[in-house]
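Annex B. Sample input.
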Amino acid sequence: MTKLNPLLELRTGKRFGIPSYCTANELVIEAIFEQAKNFNDYVLIEGTSNQINQFGGYTGMTPADFRDYVFKIADKVNFQRDKIILGADHFGPLTWAKLNESEAMKNSCELVRLAVLAGFKKIHLDTSMKLADDSLNERLSSEIIAERGAVLLNECEKAYQELLRSNPEEIRPVYIIGSEVPIPGGTQEEDDKLQVTRVSDFENTLKIYKRKFDEHNLSDRWRDIIAVVVQPGVEFGDKDIHFYNRQAARELTDSLKKYPDLVFEGHSTDYQTPGKLREMAEDGIKILKVGPALTFALREGLFALRFMERELIPENQRANFIETLERVMLANPENWRKHYHGSELDKFLARKYSYSDRCRYYFSLPEIKSAINKLFANIDSVEIPAGMLRQFMPRQYKLVRDNLLDLKADSLVKNFVASCTEDYNYAVKVK
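Annex B, continued. Sample output.
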């Protein structure tokens, strides 16, 4: 018998919820896997169509490359490959929105095909964006969104049938639909108006998608739709966080009771409190996507090491990570210039401390990776005074003190990430 997709457990209640870690950062993924071994549970790792696609994305990886990359990290930390669920986030024409529909959808079909063939088992069919030949004066209709979504799902199904021919026990992918999609990486303006998805819009999405599936002879595949992306009232921007208000979302979350085979997927749950994340899972928002908060935590750890390096290492031997990151970001401003506004001081601070965390786009560059490696080597070459560790890493100090964490540079930094993932574990694992 073919093994069922573990995400189907969200329907039955056997799985209370699951974090969706949307990241391609090696240290972050290491930290996630290392902590996940404490639970012997599945880990959902996702990549966006901007990160990974047939042309490489900004990571330079195809879906198959991303799979191999994630598996290699898992092998390094002895995490079981069969406990990894690969997810495809915002897969559709997002990356090719400046092209006409025919070309953008051709690229999108190839992208989802490659994702399924590479073993991705959760596909977010996101067709919510306008393309070059869509009307500028009219809102993109739900009919068009659903039609394009059905086309993509049909391509996924053909790819899955191809997999079955070589492996009859291949796990079937599940799919996420919905057009209430926050901007990847957070809002760009602090005064963006945040509106919880209306019940009528949610139910209209289901109605139109189901009809489009019928029109494309995909009626049997409706059972593979496990979640709808909605806006439950959570978001973050450069400086602000919109925290979950379960009363404001009550009408939406109550409407889910009529659809026992569906859950909600919440995007941009970054920086929510553990209690708010728990409330979201209790209210049916059982897939909790997080991305920038993970690399934000990583940056916090790296900055703390840099502050200690300044005290411990001779000036001519320092990695100067903070200064190197600033120099590289100024020399290559394309990943932050449109997102950070205000005075020069405002932008200077945003490059370091913005919740949008645009500096994450630079962590894979050779100069930044080299600075991180040198920083780790410098810190590991000296003895960190306990009082200094307490000053710059108070949480990690306690763990080191109690012999629960190695006093090594990479372990200290990855524990910053673990503090973020612990919030999600509390939300979906602790009963």
